[in-house]
Amino acid sequence: MKTLRFKIAAALEAAAGWGGMRREISCLAIGGVSLLISLFDLLPLPFDAAWAAIILCGVPIILEAVVGLITAFDIKADVLVSLALTASVITGEHFAAGEVAFIMQLGALLEDVTVSRARAGIERLVKLTPVSARRLTAAGEELIPAQEVRVGELLRVLPGESIPVDGVIVSGETSVDQSVMTGESLPADKGPGDEVSSGTVNRFGSFDMRATRVGEDSSIQRMVRLVQSADAGKAKIVGLADRWATWIVVIALSAAAVTWAATGEIIRAVTILVVFCPCALVLATPTAIMAAIGNATKHGFLVREGDALERLAQVKRVCFDKTGTLTEGRLRVSAVKSRLPGLTDEELFSLAAGAEARSEHPLGRAIVECCRAAGLEVPEAEGFKMLPGRGVSAVVKGRSLLAGRAELLSEAGCAPDAELTALAAKLSEGGSTAAFIAVDGEAAGVIALSDALRADAADTIRAVKAEGVTPVLLTGDRRGAAESIAASAGIDEVHAECLPEDKLRYIAGCRSANSPVCMIGDGINDAPALRAADTGIAMGGIGSDIAIDAADIALVNDDIAELPHLLRLSRRMMRTIKLNIAFSMCLNFLAIGLAIPGLLGPVVGALVHNAGSVLVIINSSLLLGRKGK
Questions:
Q1: What is the DSSP letter of 162?
Q2: Residues 36-61: pLDDT tens digits?
Q3: Strand positions, DSSP E, 259-355
Q4: Which of 16, 49, 284, 311 satisfies CB 3.0 to 4.6 Å to 38 for a cystine?
């Protein structure tokens, strides 16, 4: 809900065409100049120039405090500020009133700067929802809106189309891009009896399917609802000044009342209210957060939520997605094994690359790119055929080539023998994907591809553990691949084959067990978990727009090696905030001790406690120069 300050700004914006932030800055600038004129009596005015600061900076504070008290009996720091402002004006201490109002609005502006911008992630996700479907009837094929599909109806999906609803394939073979749901960039081969999900993309062959879940029950719609509701239970950080406002108000009013009753001098009571204004307390948090955000930006982090670092300082677990987060997010050839006498591994690699040169499948493209990167020839192919869900066939250098699944070779009468099958199984257990190669009607070997672990991933995990935080692998990939990557990175806790709701369930479990959790991911399927986690960090380079919009922090250059620095920075920021608060409270009580016997007047008292605000800002600014190890 917008504050009254924002509502007033909105009204002025309609009249004068100013944006809310521009108006706040303008009011502060005018208020600051007016205070200087008042303090040094620079202009011969018929009224005190400090009135400009009181009206522009103080009136919104008073109105907001009154509205909060009347509508919800909500006692915040602005209640005490309003009392001090009113008392100062009544007693003629206009400069003190204007100075307090100016400092408080400066703190409010700093808080506003750290507020996150509007998110468009849900809108982008909704755009992924298929809008049409091809329904099969006795009269033939008809194009209908996707929301009109009913359970049990037969649908046809052509290459390149999004799958409109959840269902089961009844005929045809294909490869489906399931990255929306699982985060894995490698398409999954599908055939009769296999399940497919709405929102995923049919890459190659056409197929017929029977609808099983439609409308609001479909996978993509469940994803939309997850993202919309994931942060409903995320507690927002409340400003410490507001959190303790009731006690501050009670102490200040009690001290002022007792002093007035004991001395009969209202000026002393006003001084107590002025020096007890929580200016430094209000500045303690936003100044430290802004300085820490500035530091984080220098290390490649774009902090989108003002209180994200405050939440990050509390985390006990960091959940990593696999593909694109711990790994580089692209396939590389990890092994080539030839089984034919007279055909070397390099020759087999070259022939396979020639056969895959016209393929659009990610496996085929990876084989071609790695072959060229290795300096090997990629010969021209003839008679190229794409066999959806199975592989490719071609003639390369006069030799007949098959590359793809074991079933493709079996259909051609050259099924891989037990030894070659065992080799492929062993490679798969290590997280690789194996492609079988047949040459001239004989099983010739296997090429393994895998997503390589980032070079700095293991060091990053060790540093995270050194901070007392438990790393967790949370991925939609196969268990074998997940466990292999986790072992290489040094992660002990692994959760594989996770759908978006599984990740969300794990995050919710951690939070309900009072174990604050940070999620790091890059895919659309990570968006609900990124939104639900205490702190969500998205890979800004390789990551999807939806994941970035759902996260609190974006890692612009995808350098996860900076993560330990961010953890340390967030904790140092919290220590700075606590030091600022302790200092400001001690200064306030000292000033009260001097105000009660009349040693401080309202103007000097305002200067003293505002000097404390300056020291708080200086202490917070030290975070800007803090370096990572």
A1: B
A2: 888 787 788 888 888 888 888 888 88
A3: 301-303, 317-320, 327-338
A4: 49
